[in-house]
Specification:
39% helix; 21% strand; eight-stranded parallel beta barrel; alpha/beta; manganese
Length: 516
């Protein structure tokens, strides 16, 4: 940019976002989100933690190979094996980055690492140098920088820059900081580190006190030129700084910020819906920028003002972030080419004709039940198709439920388990409870239901219901999703999807200290 500095957007939805309980994504789901982020024109996509599991390695490698317009990043602890694995995963990237980290706060160094400060600096420098064997784009993060001593933070920052770190990230790992305080840390680093002009200062803020976006903006005002964030603020514990809020705050308040992003903000809502659908984490209606009520006006005074002049109560245009009227795009008479073309416009392509045919068959089935098919329906349909293909040992064959006033609800169903059909029936406090009990009587998963959430995908009484089910077993948390115009069937699909994940038994490693 000619007059304004370029504010780099580093999206970690695929890495830190995935660390939300139950938010694990498959390789194909990560690719769908990565392509959406590329269309959004995100500068850096952190695709995962390659050492964490073979699946994570494969996902990072796939994203690195297919994404061309955004830089692809892999996370690594300050350990040789982590860095080597990240280097391997990023080998085919058009533009790759290795992001290595080590903790720098007194409590982390003493209690977790059991290392002396000098040892931490030595290991950080060695990690940066090793990463430079694979790429000249190396980011170093001082984990828990928000609770680190400023003198030590200055020393380690100077040392890693000298070793070749092109970006130095200052995370508020536990969401402890306050905007004025955090901004002062960035200002101090810019003033006190002699070689600071040889690197980009970055921040990565968590939302434990609801201040992730505020802290990030305070850092930008004090000279940070990269912000690490996620779509919908997804992430560990209370989440990360929300990309959509950061980007629109900077874009809207150009009178205060001497920088701007290169993002195509009209893609924000599409990205938000995609991430929500894949992870099962619904967006709250009053969520800034992407919530259903973000541009709704209930008050008569507000409505009158907006009708007279939009800027009386709206500081952004809904169109600028991708909000449009729900638009019917296809119907029951639409053909495969029209279906394929519209999904391509939404950034969804199929790897094979078989995948296209499976999705098209579901579309035709939906079109017979629901007259108006919206973009949101199409996105959910593809997600639901992919859910059915991943690790599917159990399939819902049929379901019949009965619920009437004064009678105990009951459900009868047929499941296909490893290809063999099994029948069951059960009663419950409601039709959904009865269906879940019937499924459990067959599968005996032993999992505990931790969350049940229903969300209407579009408006109208014929809208598809999108259900998220969260199960926990032995400390492992999984999310299951299902969609259907019949909410009980959607619920059963979601429960079966979650049970498939429980029964599959794979568990993504989560190395201690990955929360940067």
């Amino acid at each position: 940019m000619s007059e304004k500095d370029h504010l780099i957007i580093f999206d970690t939805t695929l890495r830190d976002g995935e660390q939300s309980p139950g938010a694990s994504m498959t390789r194909d789901e990560k690719l769908r989100i990565a392509r959406a982020l590329e269309r959004l024109r995100v500068d850096v996509i952190e695709a995962g933690f390659p050492i964490a599991s073979p699946g994570d390695f494969e996902a990072v490698a796939a994203v690195a190979e297919q994404i061309k317009d955004s830089r692809v990043c892999g996370l690594a602890r300050a350990l040789d094996k982590d860095i080597d694995r990240a280097g391997e995963a990023l080998a085919k990237a058009n533009a790759g980055r290795i992001h290595t980290f080590i903790a720098t706060s007194p409590i982390h160094m003493e209690k977790k690492l059991r290392m002396q400060p000098e040892q931490v600096i030595e290991q950080a420098v060695a990690a940066v140098r090793r990463a430079r064997r694979y790429t000249d784009d190396v980011e170093f993060s001082a984990e828990d920088a928000g609770r680190s001593e400023i003198d030590f933070l200055c020393r380690i920052t100077e040392a890693v820059i000298a070793a070749g770190a092109t970006t130095v990230n200052i995370p508020d790992t536990v969401g402890y900081n306050i905007p004025d305080q955090f901004g002062a840390v960035i200002a101090a680093l810019r003033e006190r580190v002699p070689n600071i002009d040889q690197t980009i200062l970055s921040v990565h803020c968590h939302n434990d006190l609801g201040l992730a976006v505020a802290n990030s903006l305070a850092a930008v005002r004090n000279g940070a030129r990269q912000v690490e964030c996620t779509i919908n603020g997804l992430g560990e514990r209370a989440g990360n700084a929300a990309l959509e809020e950061l980007v629109m705050a900077v874009r809207t308040r150009q009178d205060l910020f001497d920088c701007d992003t290169r993002l195509d903000t009209t893609q924000i809502v599409t990205c938000s819906r995609l991430v929500s659908g894949i992870t099962g984490f619904a967006v709250q209606p009053n969520k800034a920028v992407v919530g259903a009520n973000a541009f709704a006006h209930e008050s008569g005074i507000h409505q009158d003002g907006v009708l007279k002049n939009r800027e009386t109560y709206e500081i952004m245009r809904a169109e600028d972030v991708g909000w449009t009227e729900n638009r019917m795009v296809l119907g029951k008479h639409s053909g495969r080419n029209a279906f394929r073309s519209r999904l391509h416009d939404l950034g969804i392509d199929f790897a094979s004709e078989e995948e296209l045919n499976a999705a098209f068959a579901r579309f035709k089935d939906l079109a017979d039940k629901k007259h108006e098919i919206f973009d949101e329906d199409l996105q959910t349909l593809v997600t639901d198709t992919n859910l059915g293909a991943a690790n599917e040992r159990v399939k819902l064959v049929s379901l019949r439920v009965c619920s009437e006033t004064g009678e105990t609800p009951n459900a009868a169903l047929v499941l296909a388990v490893d290809g063999a059909e099994r029948s069951a029936s059960a009663t419950g406090s409601g039709p959904v409870d009865a269906a879940f009990r019937a499924i459990e009587s067959v599968l005996e998963s032993g999992a505990e239901l931790k969350l049940y959430s229903v969300n209407a995908i579009t408006s109208g009484t014929d809208a598809q219901g999108e259900v998220t089910v969260r199960l926990e077993k032995g400390g492992r948390v999984v999310n299951g999703q299902g969609a259907d115009i019949d909410i009980v069937i959607a619920s059963a699909k979601a429960y079966v999807n979650a049970c498939n994940k429980v029964l599959h038994g794979t568990h993504r490693a989560h190395p201690q200290g990955a929360d940067v």
